[in-house]
Automatic annotation (TrEMBL):
Gene3D superfamilies: Guanylate Kinase phosphate binding domain (3.30.63.10), P-loop containing nucleotide triphosphate hydrolases (3.40.50.300). This is Guanylate kinase. InterPro entries: GK/Ca_channel_bsu, Guanylate_kin-like_dom, Guanylate_kinase, Guanylate_kinase_CS, P-loop_NTPase. It is found in: Cytoplasm. CDD domains: GMPK. Its EC number is 2.7.4.8. NCBIfam families: guanyl_kin. It catalyses: GMP + ATP = GDP + ADP.
Length: 186
């Protein structure tokens, strides 16, 4: 069996990572999306074990201490991390595994998984990024401010990653994402 691959998709909050990846999995159900652990409160409609594993700070710290996370980071006041076990199992089974994570965690993957393909999603402009976060309407004013403060520094790091995709027109960005993921030699 061929070895699987790890694909990391990163970029600022609100840039459209989730939207792009939801469309991608509809077209390619064979892809495996890693489910992260987080200490953030669930948003309305989010399901335990499907969108995230929602855990307490104590539980998260235990997972870190037990070395159960492939990477983790603190983002806007909460912890987020990738449980190792399922990712490793799926890769061993030959699947393409996708991580949707923020920039600090994506950098760490470079050390733990140097063969990972790391993709950075850029907004067309910072103003459009702010508009998208507001339209989504799921974050408090304070959470929006934290995300925007962090966004500029994140965008400045885009060149550290293997590939950059501007998510202006959604369909165009999706086609580019597909071509990059599936053009890889297996
Ligand atoms: N490092 C890391 N970041 C994660 C993980 N899971 C999610 N994130 C990132 O954490 C950030 C905040 O996620 P979330 O609260 O769901 O907000 P949203 O992405 O703005 O909808 C986003 O940039 C996610 O990509 C993870 O396991 N590790
Ligand atoms: N190409 C696009 N053009 C316009 N709006 C978009 C585009 N991509 C995503 N959006 C919208 O932007 C908002 C944030 O997208 P989301 O996927 O939640 O971002 P992220 O997962 O990166 O935080 C959502 O309301 C989504 O519908």
């Amino acid at each position: 069996m061929q070895a699987g691959k790890l694909i990391v998709v990163t970029g600022p909050s609100g840039v459209g990572k989730g939207t792009l990846l939801r469309s991608l999995i509809q077209r390619h159900p064979e892809l495996y999306f890693s489910i992260s652990a987080t200490t953030r409160q669930p948003r309305p409609g989010e399901i335990e074990g499907q969108h995230y594993y929602f855990v307490s700070r104590d539980k998260f710290e235990q997972m870190v201490a037990a070395d159960e996370l492939l990477e983790w980071a603190e983002y806007a006041g909460n912890y987020y991390g990738t449980p190792c076990l399922q990712v490793q199992q799926q890769i061993q089974q030959g699947r393409l595994v996708i991580l949707e994570i923020e920039v600090v965690g994506a950098r760490k993957i470079n050390q733990t998984f140097p063969t990972a393909l790391r993709i950075f999603i850029l907004p067309p402009t910072l103003a459009e990024l702010e508009r998208r976060i507001r339209v989504r309407g799921q974050d408090s004013e304070e959470a929006i401010a934290r995300r925007l403060t962090r966004a500029q520094a994140e965008i400045d790091a885009a060149d550290e990653f293997d590939v950059q995709i501007v998510n202006d027109d959604l369909e165009t960005a999706l086609i580019r994402l597909e071509s990059i993921i599936f053009a890889r030699p297996n």
